[in-house]
Amino acid sequence: MSKILVIDDERSIRNTLKDILEYEKYEVDLAEDGNKGLEMIRAAEYDIVLCDIKMPGLDGIEVLERMVVLAPDTPVVMISGHGNIDTAVDSIKKGAYDYIEKPLDLNRLLITIRNAMDKSTLVTETKILKKKVSKKYEIVGESKAIAEILDMADRVAPTDARVLITGANGSGKELVARRIHEQSNRASGPFVEVNCAAIPSELIESELFGHEKGAFTSAVKQRKGKFEQAHGGTLFLDEIGDMSLSAQAKVLRALQENEISRVGGDKAIKVDVRVVAATNKNLSAEIDNNHFREDLYHRLSVILIKVPTLNERLEDIPLLANHFIQQICSEYGMPEKLISENAIAELQKINWTGNIREFRNVIERLIILCNNEITEADVLKFAAPLK
After folding, report:
1. Is the Cβ–Cβ distance between 325 and 337 less than 8 Å?
2. Reduced to 3 states, what is the DSSP secondary structure of residue 31?
3. The domain 311-383: what is its CATH number?
4. How confident is the model over 198-231, as pLDDT tens digits?
5. How far apart are CA 50 and CA 75, in angstroms?
């Protein structure tokens, strides 16, 4: 049952609202002034607050201003019999969900409450989803190698320095890039990922910089590229070593000038983007073979971070195993499975050529095929790596 707090110095208004809202199946608490209302907000959680503006002592606007700090996600509907347009605008600017004049139109009030409840539900769901996403991209480990990576990522995050992340496939380069973004001043901006290896060379420029209508046969409308989409945030160029030389030249210009031009257009578009790149290739060798531009390498590699392979951090396997067991069992809606110490020891003997990606797949396989506890025999039977 949704819970509503009514703050109003008129007893008749309080009691009338209580009767109506309880008839509508809401749970209602009443406060006769602003101070009492704030005490109740500190003591309990409410889905919505209805607050009068003109009250003795602490008025409604002051209550609203304090609620922004105390309960920022709780919608507040201001009600007043002495209001005007300026009062309504001031209330909305200071964070109120809506403003309703007395005498109250009950139909409008009930619709406003339902809409505010919907907004509150969406805010809660968004927070839960963000926590799930954050958990999904969490870097798990306590080894010295991981501690050094996390320390470097956290040091560079608050700056706008470009970062080049190197490491084998499946080692967690994207997780490092996401951590840098989430710890940065751009965290509220977009995190846009481009897998340079997955996009055909003839389409990579359109993908990165966008195109104008008619720029090529299938360009039936104007399209923004990833640089524009990432404006104010972070652009993650994954597998940068697979980018064509022509696209590399344009990326270099974008980094130098902080502006891009769409394919088929000549207008310069300013972009505010932090670029984090990653590769599993040896870029020095790629430069020697004329497959990668040396000037672009120096632009990208202000900070170099090398992500260790799983074989270089075997001491993290117990933590990783438990982390993935929790995550996968939660996704499947099944009780968490146990894993024996001997099973962990057996996992630590495997040569993990596919790194964390391979390890997660093996844990998922074990969860599906094993009983309540994953044993050493289960690992020997089901976790055999690719020969």
Report:
1. yes
2. strand
3. 1.10.8.60
4. 888 778 888 999 988 887 877 778 889 999 999 9
5. 9
State the pTM of this model: 0.68
228's tokens: 């524009």
Q: Report the C-alpha gap between 226 and 276 in whole angstroms.
A: 13
Give the tens place of pLDDT for each residue, 105-152: 888 899 999 998 887 777 777 666 665 555 567 899 999 999 999 999
Same fold, 3-132 and 137-308: yes
In 3D, which of 107, 116, 44 has the Cα closest to residue 78? 116
Quick count: other Cβ atoms within 10 Å of Cβ 203? 14
- In tens, the pLDDT along 228-243 reads 999 999 999 999 999 9
Rounded distance between C-alpha atoms, residue 207 and residue 69, angstroms: 42
Sequence-ordered list of residues with C-beta below 8 angstroms from that of 151, at least 6 positions apart, any chain: none
Angle at 359 between CA 357 and CA 362, to 5 degrees: 115
8-state DSSP, 266: -
Helix, strand, coil content of the chain in percent (nearest 5): 50, 15, 35
Do residues 209 and 267 touch, judged by C-beta distance below 8 A? Answer: no
Which DSSP letter does residue 211 get? B
Q: Is 386 exposed, middle or buried (0-12, 13-18, 19+ CB in 10 A)?
A: exposed
Say whether 118 sits in a helix, a strand or coil: helix
Q: 172 φ, ψ to 5°?
A: 110, 30
Unique residue bearing structure tokens 């991981």 = 146
Tokens of 30: 């009443």
**Domain extents in the chain:** 3-132, 137-308, 311-383
| DSSP-derived pairing of the beta strands 234-238 and 259-260 | unpaired
Which H helix or E strand runs over 259? Answer: strand 259-260
Average pLDDT over all residues of the chain: 90
- Compute the distance between CA of residue 53 and CA of residue 96 in angstroms, rounded to an integer: 11
CATH number of 137-308: 3.40.50.300
The pair of three-digit structure tokens given for residue 385, joined into one six-digit string: 């790596």
For 121-254, strand residue ranges (E) read 163-166, 191-195, 234-238
Fold of 3-132: Rossmann fold (3.40.50)
